[in-house]
């Protein structure tokens, strides 16, 4: 009889931080503000984060060589347009469906994922984010409590 191997679902170590950002800014305006206030250099990734055929989230990336960290900004909301069912009262109107990268944090507009080893980086980053006009609030999410953590691993 052969050996049976089980794969543990949570084998990925949490060596990243996720910061939730609440803001009404468009993604390109948010990136511009981040680049100014964090002295970063975020750029749009050539590929979006695709969770399904119609669910896609834009990604902005920055590799900080000075402290060996990798930063990713993602929108938490994806709005998908669908056609209404024929014979419906509103058949000529499009139907919009919202999808969330982290559904347990639907109120967050953006997610800032930082892969780093510096423990003081989180507090400094949140303080800088709160200085940006039109950023309502920003806070660190506890990665061990995330139900959809796999959406952030790419």
Counting DSSP H or I runs of 4 or more residues, the number of helices is: 2
How do the strands of the widest beta sheet line up side by side? 2-5-6-9-1-10
What integer is the average pLDDT? 81
Task: Write the element-wise H/E pattern from the N-terminal end onward.
Answer: EHEEEEEEEEHE
Structural class from helices and strands?
mainly beta
- Taking all Cα atoms into account, the compactness measure Rg is 18 Å
Beta content comes to 25-35%
- Low-pLDDT sequence parts: none
Overall body shape: globular
Write down how many β-strands occur, each being a DSSP E stretch of 2 or more residues: 10
List the helices and strands and how they pair.
Layout: E1 16-23, H1 27-37, E2 43-44, E3 49-50, E4 56-57, E5 59-64, E6 69-75, E7 77-82, E8 95-100, E9 110-115, H2 121-129, E10 135-141
Question: What would you say this structure looks like, in words?
Answer:
The protein has helices spanning 27-37, 121-129; strands spanning 16-23, 43-44, 49-50, 56-57, 59-64, 69-75, 77-82, 95-100, 110-115, 135-141. It is mostly beta strands and 154 residues long. The chain contains 2 helices and 10 strands; from the N terminus they run βαββββββββαβ. A hairpin with a 4-residue loop joins β5 (59-64) and β6 (69-75). The strands form 3 sheets. It has a 6-stranded antiparallel β-sheet with strand order 2-5-6-9-1-10, covered by helices on one side. Strands 3-4 form a two-stranded antiparallel ribbon.
């Amino acid at each position: 009889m052969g050996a049976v191997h089980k794969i543990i679902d949570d084998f990925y170590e949490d060596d990243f931080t996720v910061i939730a950002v609440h803001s009404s800014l468009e993604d390109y305006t948010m990136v511009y503000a981040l680049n100014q206030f964090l002295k970063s250099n975020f750029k749009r990734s050539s590929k979006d984060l695709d969770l399904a055929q119609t669910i896609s989230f834009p990604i902005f990336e920055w590799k900080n060589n000075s402290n060996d960290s990798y930063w990713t900004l993602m929108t938490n909301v994806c709005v998908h347009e669908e056609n209404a069912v024929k014979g419906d009262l509103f058949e000529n109107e499009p139907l919009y469906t919202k999808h969330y990268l982290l559904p347990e944090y639907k109120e967050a507009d953006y997610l800032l994922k930082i892969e780093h080893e510096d423990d003081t980086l989180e507090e400094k980053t949140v303080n800088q984010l709160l200085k940006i006009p039109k950023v309502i609030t920003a806070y660190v999410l506890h990665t061990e409590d995330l139900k959809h953590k796999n959406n952030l691993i790419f």
